[in-house]
Each structure stands twice: as structure tokens, then as C-alpha cells.
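Listing S7. Sequence submitted for prediction.
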Amino acid sequence: MNIRYPQIWQTVQQIPYGQVATYGQIADLAGLPKRARLVGKALANAPEQGWQGQLIPWYRVVNAQGKLSFTQESEAFERQKQQLQAEQVVIIGNKINLKTFQWQPDLAELLFKLSF
């Protein structure tokens, strides 16, 4: 396991219900600028039981264009789409309107919730 994965998982756990974040945004918030691909690897290797007693809402992470990164015909795409729709996130085709649904944490929220 990469030593950076836990800080990525902890950051992803902060994404609120009904909102999404991009891979690059998570990398930045986790203190790993320009490491969006590492975020993808960390989520692919996330423990199924979650991290520190909390599930990791991997499905709330999308690419920089607001698109689900899985192939549209895949099972993973359908799982992600269903979980986001269950949280009232609107998906048209494979895209989410980031202006409406992107998580925009304020500094105070980050300072108190994230401690690496």
C-alpha cells in the first residue's frame, strides 16, 4: 500500500452527501497537487470495509469534466451512477454539472476535518 493512500481516503470521506469532487481536487485537498492518477489508484485499492470505521464514498469522485470515468457499459459505471442518483445527483449521459454538484469546502471545514 502506498503511504499516501490513507490521506486520500480520508479526504474522500469528507465529500458531503449529494456532492462530487474531481480526482485533481481530491489530490489538491489531500496535499498532493498534480497527483490525480494517484487518487484513482488509491480508490481502486481502498479497503472494502472502509477506513477507520467509515466507508469511502469512491463513487463521489469524477473526472475533471464531471464525467464518470468508467466505460458506460460496465458494471462499475452502473454502480457509480446508481449510487450518485440515490443521492439526487443528476447525471445526463455520463456527465454531472460541476457548477451544481461539485463540493466546494471552505477553509475552516478542511482545517477541522482533515488531519494527516
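Caption to Listing S7: primary sequence and predicted C-alpha cells for the chain studied. Strands lie at 21-22, 61-62, 91-92, 95-96. Residues 78 and 106 are 31 Å apart (CA to CA).
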